[in-house]
Amino acid sequence: MSERLQILIPESLAARLRKAAQRAGTTRSALVRDAIERALDEYGGTDDPVSALGELDAPTADIERMIEEIEDGRS
Question: How many domains, in total, are found in the chain?
Answer without folding.
Answer: 1
